[in-house]
Design goal:
CATH architecture of the largest domain in chain B: 3-Layer(aba) Sandwich
Distance between the termini of chain A: 13 Å
CATH class of the largest domain in chain B: Alpha Beta
CATH topology of the largest domain in chain B: Rossmann fold
Number of helices of chain B: 13
Largest sheet of chain B: 8 strands, mixed
Number of helices of chain A: 6
Number of domains of chain B: 2
Strand content of chain B: 15-25%
CATH superfamily of chain A: Pyruvate-ferredoxin oxidoreductase, PFOR, domain III
CATH architecture of chain A: 3-Layer(aba) Sandwich
Strand content of chain A: 15-25%
Oligomer: heterodimer
CATH superfamily of the largest domain in chain B: Thiamin diphosphate (ThDP)-binding fold, Pyr/PP domains
Radius of gyration of chain A: 15 Å
Structural class of chain B: alpha/beta
Number of strands of chain B: 15
CATH topology of chain A: Pyruvate-ferredoxin Oxidoreductase, domain 3
Order of helices and strands of chain B: EHEHEHEHEEHEHEHEHHEEHEEHEHEH
Helix content of chain B: 25-40%
CATH class of chain A: Alpha Beta
Distance between the termini of chain B: 51 Å
Number of strands of chain A: 6
Order of helices and strands of chain A: EHEEEHEEHHHH
Helix content of chain A: 25-40%
Shape of chain B: globular
Radius of gyration of chain B: 21 Å
Largest sheet of chain A: 6 strands, mixed
Strand order of the largest sheet of chain A: 2-3-1-4-5-6
């Protein structure tokens, strides 16, 4: 997997309600804790749940001029539709990560599936698949420290929900180690 | 509510609310609409904590009326909307112009016509902002291209509204409104905050439409000792109906002149590598960033390109465009509308013979640096 210390471009794609925008925000907040510049953008339709939805995050040491991802280092896809949209990026070196619980299996260089939703279910709630995926990507692409993401979770959640999210994050990180 | 210097991740729409609070806004009336809803949401949450008032209105016509009323009572007031709501606000925006009522209207532009693509960006209200009301009038409109500019230009919008007794339109767009970036919120006192001039003389002698030398009349607050009349119909210096042609000519000219007099202060632009630019991009709002990326790419290829960013879209930056455009061989105007609303203005300034390339997007998609480069190479 490609790593880029100075700049990292990420796309999180799936459907409305999967927590992709929140994951993007958390990733961006963690990057700010590390003193980086970030831009996080969203694209979605008119439905609150369902319908294609995506978040983009750019992390850079320098000023970020154009706000959209131009050459993604990593793309997370949580629906077939999202995969179809971004699969071809793999040919130009983008790592495509998908949820193998939700999507049909795919093979090919730069395309890897992991059972994020299945793992989340075992940890207690399928809704944490996004956090597992976030931990996985952050570790795999070496774009952000686990401790920064932990801090973001601790600021955002409290009590049991915080504990569960911390566990989910760690599960994702471990998966990438 | 602490406003200190801390780097935060913030959405453009949220930064507008922070900017409004920083400027001293204490009244919001609105009807939420995508992609501006976060402004209403955040205002509803925060305004009461600041001792201000948030009012959820029945529609945008009433919202506009309410902020005019609140402003006349002395509060810095604002509303936020998008396409369909902005259309409904036009009539009362005209009232704010005629009555010289300071207020700020945020228009987070989305794709149209009509309800169009509710969640997708556009920059297609440029001419509506300028000419959307009946009756000839001048208007001030500002366009942010980043989350930081959402904050600073909102403060500027309130300052212009207060200084010149006008409604000011902050024309954002869905891209900038929903984008999140790191922002350092200025400390209190770091940015200037203007307050409207109040009358100081005898209340009985107060004439709400007699301007000082700066072209602007002091504005008293409803409920104070100064009792005065504000009307949408043609009125004299005291605010009461007046059908005298000389009076009408004086009033109409006055509404234009007070903006004309302060053009230099009002027109804010930023330039990036324009000194030697053969190719000049003229951009505003979200397309500024794609233009800057395109210009940098051209520089890498040895082509001298630069960007003029129009932070003030109205009044139009005629002088600046004339001076930079004269030097450039090619002028490129990327904008998210079909007809080239800004490109037309640029053509007006540079003349029919100028090489002006339009780059337009009207499908709800963002203009990319590649889209722009295609227009030149």
């Amino acid at each position: 997997m490609k790593t880029n210390k100075d700049r990292c471009e990420v796309i999180l794609a799936g459907s409305g309600g999967q927590g992709l925008v929140v994951s993007g925000i958390m990733l961006a907040e963690a990057a700010i804790l590390e003193g980086k510049n970030v831009v996080q953008t969203v694209s979605y339709g008119i439905a609150t749940r369902g319908g294609f939805s995506m978040a983009e995050v750019i992390i850079d040491k320098e000023e970020i001029i154009f706000q959209q991802v131009q050459k993604a280092d990593i793309v997370l896809t949580l629906t077939e539709e999202a995969m179809e949209k971004f699969q071809s990026f793999a040919d130009s070196g983008t790592s495509i990560i998908y949820d193998s619980t939700l999507l049909e299996e795919r093979r090919g260089s730069n395309i890897c599936g992991y059972p994020f939703t299945d793992m989340a279910g075992k940890l207690g709630h399928v809704g944490m698949a996004n956090i597992i995926a976030l931990g996985f990507m952050a570790q795999k692409a070496k774009m952000i420290g686990t401790d920064s993401l932990e801090k973001v979770i601790q600021e955002r959640f409290s009590g049991n929900v915080m504990e569960m999210n911390l566990k989910a994050l760690q599960a994702g990180v471990n998966l990438a180690l | 509510m602490e406003l200190g210097r801390k780097v935060k991740l913030m959405q453009g729409n949220q930064a507008i609310v922070e900017g409004a609070f920083y400027a001293g806004a204490r009244f919001y009336a609105g009807y939420p609409i995508t992609p501006s809803s976060e402004i209403a949401e955040e205002s509803a949450k925060r305004m009461p904590l600041l001792g201000g008032i948030y009012m959820q209105m029945e529609d945008e016509i009433a919202s506009m009326a309410a902020i005019i009323g609140a402003s006349l009572a002395g509060a810095k007031s604002f509303t936020a909307t998008s396409g369909p709501g902005f259309s409904l606000m036009q009539e009362n925006l005209g009232l704010a112009v005629m009555g010289e009522v300071p207020c700020v209207v945020i228009n987070v532009q989305r794709s149209g016509p009509s309800t169009g693509l509710a969640t997708k960006p556009a920059q297609s209200d440029v001419m509506q902002i300028r000419w959307g009301r009946h009756g000839d009038q001048s208007v001030i409109a500002l366009c942010p291209a980043s989350v930081s500019e959402c904050f600073t230009l909102t403060v500027t919008a309130f300052n212009f509204a207060e200084k010149f007794r006008v409604p000011v339109i902050l024309a954002s767009d869905e891209v900038v409104g929903h984008m999140r970036e790191n922002i350092t919120i200025p400390s209190p006192g770091e940015l200037a905050v203007a307050e409207r001039k109040k009358p100081t003389g005898e209340p009985a002698a107060y004439k709400p439409f007699i301007a000082d030398e700066d072209g602007v009349a002091p504005l008293a607050s409803y409920g104070s000792d100064y009792v005065f009349h504000v009307s949408s119909s043609m009125h004299g210096p005291d605010g009461y109906s007046n059908n005298n042609p000389a009076n009408a000519a004086w009033r109409v000219a006055q509404l234009h002149k007070k903006i004309e007099m302060h053009r230099e202060e009002i027109i804010i632009t930023k330039t990036f590598d324009t000194e030697d630019a053969d190719i000049l991009f003229i951009a505003f709002g979200a397309t500024t960033r794609a233009s800057r990326a395109a210009a940098l790419e051209l520089r890498k290829q040895g082509i001298r390109a630069g960007v003029l960013q129009l932070m003030t879209i109205w009044p139009f930056a005629d002088k600046k465009i004339a001076s930079l455009g004269e030097r450039a061989k090619t002028v490129v105007v990327p904008e998210m509308n079909y007809s080239g609303q800004v490109a037309g203005e640029v053509q007006r300034i540079l003349g029919a013979g100028a090489d002006i390339r339009k780059v337009n997007s009207y499908n709800g998609e963002i203009i990319t640096p590649q889209d722009i480069l295609k227009a030149i190479l």
